[in-house]
Amino acid sequence: MKKEINLEKENIPRHIAIIMDGNGRWAKEKGKRRTAGHREGSKVLKEICRNASSFNVEYITVYAFSTENWKRPKDEVVFLMDLLRQYLKESISNSKKDNMRVRVIGEREGLPKDIIDKIEELEQASKNNTGLTLQIALNYGGRNEIIRAVKKIAKEYKNDNILLENIDEDNFSRYLDTSDVPEPELMIRTSGEQRLSNFLLWQLAYSEFYFTDKYWPDFKKEDLEEAIIFYQKKERRFGGLADEN
């Protein structure tokens, strides 16, 4: 019998960040190539986005390919780039069907030109959609993002476009890739690992962290529900004291 899960509809996180981990291990345990795990993980992402939208989550940010992932075996990197091409192409029609806006964050320099072109085409095609916003972190690293933001601020300061005393946390956030998106209230990582792996280092400062042993290809709607319930049980104080009343 399926466990009945009741979400507090008035306490749904607006923004959920996800580290989609365990594709390779999932495939290995099934006697398949690592690439099969990545392909299955891509399918799961589509379903989780639809599930999140049905729960009225407004933003999902997923860690698709890090700046460190270039160190993986060449054949795996080539496959991931090809899978990305296919995903971006399919997302143009899927985003329209699901009323989903898609954005890509990270360092575009270094990506193949045809992928950059496809990213721009998808972002343009989906920019007016009003449902869930999916942010794909591609060739992304949290430290890299912060360094890029510092360089932008330094250039603005050099050109007398910003005063030193006006650089605060809110102002700094405007120079990040996620400048117009609220910070995630909940971060989910699959596969049992419990670390950030250079993901959204600035934005996750006050997020709730949910770790599950399930591999990403096995992550289903009920697992997303469990993660949201975990979040709903937390008292978020942002460094303040608990309400004792």
What is the gist of this entry?
The chain is of the alpha/beta class.
Give a written overview of the molecule:
With 245 residues, the chain is α/β, with parallel strands linked by helices. The chain is 41% helix and 14% strand. It is built from seven helices and six strands. It has helices spanning 23-29, 34-54, 74-98, 113-126, 142-158, 169-173, 221-232; strands at 15-19, 59-66, 101-105, 133-140, 186-189, 208-211. A six-stranded parallel beta sheet has the order 3-4-2-1-5-6, sandwiched between helices. β3 (101-105), α4 (113-126) and β4 (133-140) form a beta-alpha-beta unit. The radius of gyration is 19 Å and the shape is globular. It starts with 14 loop residues before the first strand and ends in a 13-residue tail after the last helix. The model has no long low-confidence stretch (mean pLDDT 93).
First and last CA, distance: 39 Å
Oligomer: single chain
Poorly predicted segments = none
- Count of DSSP strands: 6
